[in-house]
Task: inverse folding
């Protein structure tokens, strides 16, 4: 099981121990993960999640599991959390809005070219 927080996405980092003689040896920095149960009021069931202490603060700030999951888009959530959001949306009968398509760089540059040409024509 990977050591990844389901809320913040924090995971194991790699670094070096540096001794007094400046000798470098590899080491890992583990996130402070806790296995906690959270209750969903809408679904009326408990979910067991491995989250970091920073993730716990985030859930508390948002007002619980349901509020946090509903405030984020599914693409920004971990797959496990996105499944919870999908179940909540199904329960309350809400469908997810399709995301807006970003403007392609080529279209943006084409608009700029048109603006420049329009200014040249207006100056003539």
Result:
């Amino acid at each position: 099981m990977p050591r990844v927080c389901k809320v913040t996405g924090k995971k194991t980092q790699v670094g070096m121990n540096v001794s007094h003689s400046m000798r470098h040896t590899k080491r890992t920095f583990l996130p402070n993960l806790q296995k906690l149960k959270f209750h969903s009021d809408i679904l009326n069931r408990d979910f067991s999640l491995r989250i970091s202490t920073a993730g716990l603060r985030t859930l508390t700030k948002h007002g619980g599991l349901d509020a946090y999951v509903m405030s984020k888009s599914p693409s920004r959530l971990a797959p496990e959390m996105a499944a919870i959001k999908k179940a909540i949306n199904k329960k309350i009968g809400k469908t997810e809005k399709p995301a807006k398509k970003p403007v392609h760089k080529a279209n943006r540059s084409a608009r700029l070219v048109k603006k420049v040409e329009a200014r040249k024509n207006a100056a003539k």
In short: The CA atoms of residues 4 and 11 lie 4 Å apart. Strands lie at 13-18, 24-29, 33-40, 45-52. The helical segments are 53-62, 65-71, 79-92, 105-123. The chain is about 40% helix and 25% strand.
